[in-house]
Amino acid sequence: MSKDSKTNLIRYLSEEKRFDGRKLDEFRQIEIEYNVSKTAEGSARVKVGETEVIAGIKLEMGKPFPDTPDEGALMVGTELLPLSSPDFEAGPPGIEAIEMARVVDRGLRESKAIDNKKLCVKKGEKVWIISVDICTINNQGNLLDVCGLAAIAALKVAKFPGFDGERVDYKTHTDEPVPLLKIPIPVTVFKLSGKYFVDPTSEEEQEYDSRLTVTTIEDGTICALQKGGDAPITVEDVDNMVSIALRKANEIRKSL
Amino acid sequence: MTYKKRYDGRNFTESREIEAKAGVIKRADGSAYFRIGNTVAYAAVYGPRELHPKFMQNPERGILRCSYNMMPFSGQGERVRPGQNRRAREIAMVTEKALLPVLNLENYPNAVVDVFIELPQTDAGSRCAGICAASIALADAGIEMKDLVGAVSVGRVDDKVLVDLDYSEEAHEEGGTADIPIALIPSTGEMTLLQMDGEITKEQLINALNMAKDAILKINIEQKNALKNKFEVVNDE
Question: Is residue B13 part of a domain?
Answer without folding.
Answer: no
